[in-house]
Amino acid sequence: DQVRFETTYTALAPQLKVVAPWREWNLRSREALLDYLKERNIPTTASLEKIYSRDENAWHISTEGGVLESPWNAPNKDCWVWTVDPQEAPDQPEQVTVTV
Predict the structure, then answer these.
(1) What whole-number percentage of the chain has pLDDT above 70?
(2) Using CA atoms, how far apart are residues 63 and 51, in angstroms rounded to an integer?
(3) DSSP alpha helices (H): ranges in the chain?
(4) What positions does the domain Arginosuccinate synthase C-terminal occupy (predicted)?
(5) Which of 11, 51, 55, 56 has the greatest number of beta carbons closer than 10 A?
(6) Rounded to 5, what percent of the chain is helix, strand, coil?
(7) 54 pairs with which residues across the strands?
(8) Strand partners for 56
(9) Which pLDDT value is given to residue 11?
(10) Average confidence score pLDDT of the chain
(11) pLDDT tens digits, residue range 44-81?
């Protein structure tokens, strides 16, 4: 995604400088990024215990990082945001209508 975003911004607004921390700065891990934020008193919802990044839009939310880096690992209970762990979900379906 990073390359796609950078090339799009460069094409649409070549006068803007794109800052790409993961590529340009010495931040090679999520732990290093957490240290960077802590040193500068920048708030974040991530922690060493919940070291996820999330991308959210109207249609979905994706969560990555931590135990999820290996596809063999099941998500922890704190990974669920919009939904719940299937083991904790109701046994009966519920119909939902979404309107704009």
Answers:
(1) 100
(2) 10
(3) 2-12, 21-24, 30-39
(4) 52-98
(5) 51
(6) 35, 10, 55
(7) 63
(8) 61
(9) 95
(10) 89
(11) 888 888 888 888 998 999 988 888 889 899 888 888 98
**Number of alpha helices (DSSP H) and beta strands (DSSP E) in the chain:** 3, 2
- Alpha carbons 43 and 60: distance in angstroms, whole number: 24
Question: Which two three-digit tokens encode residue 38?
Answer: 């802590």
Residue 40 corresponds to which amino acid?
A: R
Give the integer Cα–Cα distance in Å for 77 and 41: 28
Token duo for residue 5: 């975003």
The Cα-based distances of 58 to 2, 32, 62, 63, 86 in angstroms read: 21, 30, 12, 15, 22
| CB distance 44 to 30 below 8 Å | no
Dist CA 59 CA 51 (whole Å): 23
Residue 18 has which token pair? 């794109």
